Amino acid sequence: MEGYHTWCASMTRGRDGRCHLYASAWPVETSFDGWVTDSTIVHAVSESPFGPFEFCDVALGRQEADVWDRDVTHNPTVIEAAGKWYLYYMGNRGNGEFWNHRNNQRIGVAVADRPEGPFERTGEPVLPPGMKGAWDDLLTSNPSCAQAPDGRFVLVYKAVSSKGDAPFHGPVKHGVAFSLSPTGPFEKHPEPIFESQGTFFPGEDPFLWSQDGKLFCILKDNGRNYSPHERALVLFSSCDGINWAPEENPVVTTRKIAHTDGSQTEYDRLERPQLSFENGQPSVLHVAVKPERDSDECYSIHLPVEFESDHAGALANPNETP
Q: According to DSSP H, which parts of the chain are helical?
């Protein structure tokens, strides 16, 4: 989108077979950090999950009313359930200053009868921060929701504690919550998941789905907390949504991506993983990338993947996919 940064692509198929993509977008003049003060969620359409996608409309934008998600919508994740589409997102309101908006993040959900919209917000956050003193009492963000084999809806999220020094606070951890409905109410499991001992901010950007009677989650490693590769995307699995373990070969992809012409690009940032599916199988990995650390340039790339269901559900590394 000319004049805009784009990030956080999440895709679904409509009843017409077209690919509907939801992504975060904010004006380039606000810099890369404008995601926290000026982001909206846009909707684009393509015949192919690899694009090109054409902008259609703003799915979730700013609001005039002084509500909790007045200023920003970000981190879209879309799912289909029982004939409706549910768009989970991070929203906030603030005074225009980065940390004020960052520390007011909350998780919401909007509902539509079709992916073209319109999406109706549910009013209050679907997953607010915890009570004062809880490990998630400052903010909640990075939502990802899936329906578990037992029929419950499972929501994995990132949260920040208010215990650490301002303005960052922290530590930053992940949690899980459960509901009988995609719009909640969600009951939080009291303890964090994906723990990495002695690490203040081990990972972020979870993507959750159900496959072969289990739950799987791709997580961005913020260091080498879950594999030997720095800042790779790693794969966890769980039978109950509470007890998670990395797969035997956990690396979904490193930040080095192979192109069809034989060249490779190592991106400074490769995150916000989302999968789209064909015939119930993961087929495309959507990731947000920032090629250079000192540049504001950013966009999404879409990678073909293979799902190795005979090997405990490990995802094949897109770098090794022809």
A: 35-38, 98-102
> 186-205, pLDDT tens digit by residue?
999 999 999 999 999 999 99
Statement: residue 318 has pLDDT above 80 = no
pLDDT (average), residues 21-25: 98
C-alpha torsion angle, residues 6, 9, 14, 19 (rounded to 10): 70
How many CB atoms sit inside 10 A of residue 243's CB?
A: 9
The secondary structure of 132-195 as a DSSP string is TTSTT-SEEEEEEEEE-TTS-EEEEEEEE-S-SSTTT---EEEEEEEESSTT-PPEEPSS-BS-
For residue range 280-312, list pLDDT tens digits in order: 899 999 999 999 999 999 999 999 987 666 544
SS3 (DSSP) at 109: strand
Domain encompassing residue 249: 4-320
The predicted structure's pLDDT at residue 234: 98
How far is 43 from 96, CA to CA, in rounded Å?
Answer: 25
Q: Domain tally for the chain?
A: 1
Residues 43, 21: Cα–Cα separation, whole Å = 6
Asked if 142 and 176 count as a contact pair (C-beta separation under 8 A), the reply is: no
Average pLDDT over residues 203-229: 97
Q: Is 18 exposed, middle or buried (0-12, 13-18, 19+ CB in 10 A)?
A: middle
CA distance 34 to 101: 10
Q: How open is the CA angle 300-236-172, to the nearest 5 degrees?
A: 75
State the pLDDT at residue 309: 60
Which of 290, 297, 245, 254 minimizes the C-alpha distance to 269? 290
CATH number at residue 236: 2.115.10.20
- pLDDT digits over 234-276, tens only? 999 999 999 999 999 999 999 999 988 999 999 999 999 999 9
What pLDDT does 320 receive?
43
